[in-house]
Amino acid sequence: MLFRNNFARRALQSTVALAALTGSAFVPAAAADQEPITIVINQSPWFAGFQAVVEKYEEETGNTVELDVNPFAGSLEKQRTAVRSDESPFDLVIMNAGFFTEFYTGGFLDPLNAIDPEFKLSEDIYTFDDSVCWDAKAARITCETGELMSVPVNPNILILHYRSDLYQEHNLSVPETWDELLENAKVLKSQNMYGISQRGQRGAFDVTYDVFPYLWAYGGGIIDQQEDGSYRISMNSPETLAGMEMYLKLAEEVGHPSTAGQTQTNVIQNMATGRAAHIDSVLAPRLFDNPDKSAVVGKVDYAPPPGTAEHGSATPLGHWLAGVPKNIPDANKKAALAFLTWFQTDEAQRAYAEAGSAPVSRAVLTSEMADTQEFRWMKALADALPNARLTFTIPEASQVLAVTELRFNQAIGEEMPLNEALNTAATEIAKVLEDAGYKYQKLEDLN
Fold first, then answer.
1. Which of 28, 77, 117, 398 has the fewest C-beta atoms under 10 angstroms from its C-beta?
2. What is the model's pTM?
């Protein structure tokens, strides 16, 4: 496997997951003797598992894969540039849930069945709210009438992590509502432990992503598509206000003293070092059970994010999808599909899990693996995925996120009153929609 940057090479050298990838060789006929391919991808908590599976693919097929690994924003910009060039240097682009619509609506990807009419998404692979399909004529995400555009490569959603040893010690029940979580966090908060650690820092898709479970639990949101195709800006709805008030209540009463400055890495490390009783985060189970990196080995358990009695639990899809650019040679397109065919197999998905990353296969998540201590997180993921929702379905998502990342962060950091931050964001989002020609509804300002 080749890399286009040094930190990815160091990551490969440091991962111990590769030693676990054993088993009988399996070489699909479609995977043999393919052109070398290059995949542009972001550096993330699940990347080590993906690179391990790529190496397994190379070992079993003899094909070559080069990984171009970048920070989140850098990967997105490379993808945008590549698909608009005369010929993309990348044969697979790994797109995030917040931005994949931009690539669909722009017509930058080849429908996978246009490359190979026989190619299929395995029935075991989740469609993630039909995000793998696009109906270009209707401009809608749907697998009912749309074409298959991508294959999921990671199910990235927010999962509640909690200290199971402390729950047992204090006879606590796993919370189903945010109010119950608050009460549990009050019990566990101490001088050396936060009741909860929350991500609040502004980034590309940071604080916005992490507040969605709060907003949806109270019936709120940011932009809601209506049946007639128009949009309702719910950013400053009373329901969104209620969700953010719960987020801030947790932060103020049982959270980190500087929640507005907390990154995803900070949040995960707070759990790994024993400084947090709860986090609502993407999965990184291999880290928490690694005695060289964790003070809480075997002490972290998992559940779907809390909800409310009225709206239940919901978690945002921050998943990743692999698409094939139109502007690459046909031989490279077929080689990209060969990798995606292999990646969907049960063997590959099990190896992905064994390497420390969450698989996209329903069959693996509900297999006997889920009954083991090592893979105890699988049940929570399988329970949460049916209630996972897309966050944005318009190509202007990055413009909306530039607004929400700033205003949510300002409210959390007390730079702006919450009502004012939500009202300001709603006005700015309305301008984005108006400039793009959308029909939309804006609510009255919160008092």
1. 117
2. 0.86
